[in-house]
Specification:
Length: 395
């Protein structure tokens, strides 16, 4: 079970981030599925729309007018989600769908729908179909959906759109993502404490900033408790390819890695680790059932803590287009439950560090080459490994 004890007020989160923390973010959720993107800003990443106007991300306030002028609520809300993969992949799309289901169960005034496995080239058509069906709000969950949704938003000013991981907004289109690097750091501490060979393997999807950021955070966390640890990376250039992911995990295990982690939309790496009798950490969704006795813990998403307050704002007529990049204080990015054999010392260390992150006492990047970097830089420009990681990021 993920940690849901802290809700999120997205206005307060944005105010704490400030304008510098939300402008110009580009992210993940790429065309190939999963939660990755191309790591670039298609319009220069300068926080402006293609028509030259500001995207309105000033740390919580939005442009006047549009759907978020707060001039009245709605008796009922029809919301739809568009997923880049099938929700049964136990990955990125599954996690977003869990958020949809939670909101649907909570609000009796909410009607939901979804379309899965939608490639970016089809998202404009799907979004327009929802608009014609009088859908009030559409959530698009892939980076590749950004430009088509931006276009549809212009043509449907009375419809609200929210885009995961991108950087463009309109008066009726917001954007959202979470700082998964924080729970990655904590999971990294766990890997650094249980390894005996000091070799940790990581099966990675694409060499984009989102994935590089996750690898770096995990490696920094591991080195914070174990100065001798090294991370070995295997790129498979896919979000969902269980056979290839399993092969990559086994190759890392053959190279003396006694802990493996992943950036996949399936539990294939966790399964391979279990079969080989080594520790494993998953991603996106709780994967303890696949890790057996050697399961550690996984960074996961609890999107209900974003979707529910967002939908409440739509219902109440207070929704505004803004940017959300919340950390663990929002419980959107979090950790799942510990595996059955994780030592208490590991749990205590991670619990202490988690509290420091929540209290603002621990900055994951402090003491690294990324200390002091802006949110914009961390989000869209991280293309270099920290020294704890072997090799270089492929160009």
């Amino acid at each position: 079970m993920v940690d849901s004890e802290r809700g999120v007020d997205r206005r307060n989160v944005l105010r704490t981030l400030g304008a510098a923390g939300v402008l110009g973010l580009a992210g993940c959720g790429g065309d190939g599925g999963g939660d990755g993107g191309d790591g670039s800003s298609g319009d220069g990443g300068d926080g402006t729309d293609s028509d030259g106007g500001s995207d309105g991300d000033d740390g919580g306030s939005s442009s006047d007018g549009g759907s978020g002028d707060g001039d009245g609520g709605m008796d009922s809300v029809k919301a739809a989600w568009i997923y880049v993969a099938e929700i049964g992949d136990l990955g990125w799309s599954w996690a977003h769908n869990e958020g949809r289901l939670s909101a649907e169960e909570k609000f009796d005034w909410l009607e939901t729908d979804y379309t899965e496995a939608v490639p970016p080239g089809e998202v404009e058509r799907v979004t327009r179909e929802y608009a014609q069906g009088d859908t009030d709000v559409v959530f698009g969950t892939s980076f590749g959906y950004m430009d088509p949704m931006f276009k549809v938003a212009e043509d449907n000013p009375d419809m609200i759109l929210e885009h995961a991981t991108g950087y463009r907004t309109r008066e009726n289109m917001g954007r959202y993502m979470g700082k998964i690097y924080q729970p990655r750091y904590l999971a990294g501490q766990a890997t650094g404490m249980v390894t005996e060979t000091n070799n940790i393997g990581y099966v990675a999807a694409f060499p984009i900033p989102e994935v590089v950021r996750s690898i770096n955070a995990m490696a920094v966390g591991a080195r914070s408790v174990n100065p001798d640890v090294t991370f070995k990376i295997r790129w498979i250039n896919a979000w969902f390819d269980p056979p290839k992911a399993g092969e990559a995990a086994n190759s890392l295990i053959d190279e003396d890695c006694d802990v493996v982690a992943q950036e996949m939309d399936s539990p294939a790496v966790v399964r391979a680790a279990n079969d080989a009798g080594v520790w494993a950490s998953g991603y996106n969704a709780p994967m303890g059932e696949f890790g057996g006795e050697n399961y550690l813990i996984s960074p996961v998403w609890n999107w209900a803590n974003f979707y529910e307050p967002t939908l409440e704002a739509v219902h109440e007529g207070t929704w505004e287009a803004d940017s959300f990049w919340g950390g663990m204080e929002t419980s959107v990015p979090t950790l799942d439950d510990w595996g059955p054999n994780v030592p208490q010392e590991v749990k205590d260390t991670v619990a202490s560090s988690k509290e420091e992150i929540l209290n603002g006492e621990l900055d994951v990047w402090e003491g690294t080459m990324f200390e002091g970097e802006s949110d914009e830089s961390l989000f869209q420009e991280m293309q270099t490994f920290v020294p704890e990681v072997e090799g270089e990021v492929p160009s």
